[in-house]
User: Fold Helix-turn-helix from Selenomonas ruminantium.
Amino acid sequence: MSDFNLEYIARRRKELKLSSIEMAKLLGFSNGSVYWKYEHGVYKFNADKLPLLAQALKCKISHFYTFRLAKTESEA
Assistant:
């Protein structure tokens, strides 16, 4: 199983000193407020935005996910 790692995205954006407005422009969003809603989980990133997001954050798409093993029936 995997979870989308919004904390990584926010941290990486800050490491690169990119503003929400800059990210919005790179991803084709109308303004920084819209990007903020994606970064904070109000909206979900569509798959077609992930390559642009990875390019902007200079990372691999796989970095956006945290992977964890699913529990077996005996562990549940």
